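User: My instructor asked us to take a sequence, write out its structure as tokens, and then describe one feature of it. I'm not sure where to start. Here is the sequence I was given:
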Amino acid sequence: MHRSLLSISIVLVSSNVCHATEAQETKIYEETKKFILKKISLEAQQKIEPGVSLYNEDELKRLGSVNKTISEVLQLNPNVQFSQDSMSAAKLGEIKANDFSINGAMVYDNQIMLDNISLNNVINPVAGNNDFAMTGLSGSSVATTINTDLLCELAVFDSNVSAEYGEFLGGVVKAKTCAPKTTVGKVHGQIIYDYTSNDWTNSNHIDENEIEDFEKESGDLYQKNFTKHGISANLYSNLTDRIGMNLNLSKRQSDINVKSLLVNHDSAKHALENESAQLNIYGKLNEQHKLKVGLQFQNDQKSLNQYNVKNGHVDVSSQNKAMELELRSQLKYARMTQSFVFQKQDMFSDSASNEMIIWRNSKNKDWSTLTTATEGGYGDQAQGLNSVEYKIKSEFHPFQWFNAEHNVLIGAGYGHYDTDWQRLENVYNYFVPTNNDITNCLHQNGQSIDPNCDASYNNGQGQYHTTRVGLNAGSIEIRNDHAHFFIEDAIQFNDYINLRLGLRTDYDSLNSKTVFSPRSTFQYLPFSNQHLKFTTGWNRYYANKLFAYYLKDGINNLSYRETRKNIDNDWGSRVPYLSSNIQTSDLVTPYVDESMFAIDSLIGAFDAQLKYVHRNFKDQIRKTRVSISPIIDEYDNLGRMQADTYTFTLTNHQLISFKESQHSILFAFDHTDKNSNFTDYDDGIIPSNYQQYILYDNKIIDESTRPANNYNRPWTARLAWNIDFQKVPLKLSNQLRLKSGYDAMVSSTIPVNERPIGPDGNLVKTRYDLTPISSAFTWDMRASYNIHVAKDHYLIWGLTIKNLTNKINRYTLENSANLYTESGRQFIADISFKF
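Assistant: Let's start with the prediction itself. The structure tokens for your sequence are:
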């Protein structure tokens, strides 16, 4: 791999040697050429700048996507990694954005923004689709979903990130809506509708056994029947020469039927909805000041029926409400930007019952096809985050000092955050009855029947509950204040050397610590132009705020376990059920040290970039089980990771004409190598001994060097090819991906008599065995046809085909020995009206 990268580097450098002599001999011509093509050159620089990827409105709309999410756009980015099951054939009914990793970081360590508003879930980002739980709500790294049809730009900062940005270990993803650029008084907009279903999708399989599992299996793992459709609308106008507006509305819905295990119920119905609304008002106060007022609302809803529980319905809602004020001021010596953000994130779970009761099947408890019959739910719960943020930055006009041009950027910010978790009512979870005596369920007084008793079990023997877990109603509140300051100077020396030096400091009241993040970038242009450019950087990034560690201890303190001997005894013998020793004051802020090197080159009509990013993650927070009886967990900073990402990209900065058509091409390749000693901050299976040894592929290694199982395909090649036909209003977009095969390592416990002795003298208890997974190829295509129906009015027909070749691609889940398949061929139709 290193030899291949070295060879590519030599080609990039040698292909540009001829430009040195040419630049000297035709200096006047070159300067004139730069002046004429100034706009094109600047655009090319933005696209190939190391660490920055920009996707404009046309690129976002041309992408063949199913759910119109940010994560689908990022599948073309070589520095972004996805979970192995991100394209699962069994979860095609989902409409939320997939989690993603940037340069090896955890999925919750990215900074995701819509304009100035954060979309991060900082309460429970790794909870997953756990909508039926006693002590928590479902959650992913993104709090709510946004529709990419409503964006004008998407920027990804994956390395060499400016000191302006903080609170991340992976990267920054910034979605942007734009001010209208239309004639005053003219109203423009677009309405888009799309549709797909399981009837338009091939359900691929590996073998006949998987077909049988797919037909018989129940639960969320197999969303066999689904219908998805979405509608979005965008309206924008310059109402006057001083006031403009942009209104965005969208709604996406998915109706899913999963097989039910309840008698007389063929399926359990799920209804998923994503709604969003955004209104931006742009005001030109005078020649120096411009004001933007923005209102946002997003709501992700789920109406769910448990496939194996009677009366197990639950409604879940995740909302984001925000208002932003942004003032841009053109001052004498600087351009100043100030922003105020008021934000409220809420998540609710409304359950049909506050008691989850498990029975043995009987005459009266006969609704299940299993050996046990379950009814009820986990009660109502909620969590929320209220925040107010203020940021200010000043970009000073360039000035000369010590024979160099300086561009100084200074900024600061403050944020106040109130987060809470609420259990709105007492909740009980009853264990399977274990009594052996006979009961008729009547209390000794003979006048009342025990509510947790069933007299029909086993021909009248009866059954009753003797053990239950309870969770008291209550709430946990946490407050946090965060402040930051940064300064950065971009220095240019004689058109040959660019240097950017920055320093960022952050203060967090949760641990009362102040951290410093140095940022540096060095750039050398041997020919004083963009034909060849060497870039290197050394940077440190500190993690974002995450309230999960601090909330968990309070939630666990509300739980207890209690027992009774028989139905005539009161519930008693209460003992704590869950316990956590979380020393929040001892937790330091996780950070990552980054070093990178990149070569950029202009080769004819193409931009080429070869880049290497090394990340060393330190003080990562993980959960460790220190006691089994009683169960005691604690968080520590002993998590360690290292990630190396090699990427090569090639794209044309000028359209290529061929037989009355124009073509744009992007080729991207990445090789990723990641080692980690934990899965995420809630990984409770890690022993307390950091220097534990394991048997990995028949070799004894330190667990901290175990390669990551997920978000870690060894390499992926991507090709995006867009075609515009000149005589026919037809556009074609192709996205091809080839993901390498990989060795999935499945864990198991070594029998006691077979355990080897590790270097520390202790017996090795855990082994990981190799399960080879073959490579995966997908070809996605989108075609759109423009029909001019009237002046400035267009009807656009679109068809997207995912996995055009219907290739059967396999994957395995974390620590699982089972093989699953990705989606087969899928069709998505859409129609747009643009005016």
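For the description part of your assignment, you could build on this observation: The two ends are 51 Å apart (CA to CA). Try explaining in your own words what that tells you about the chain.
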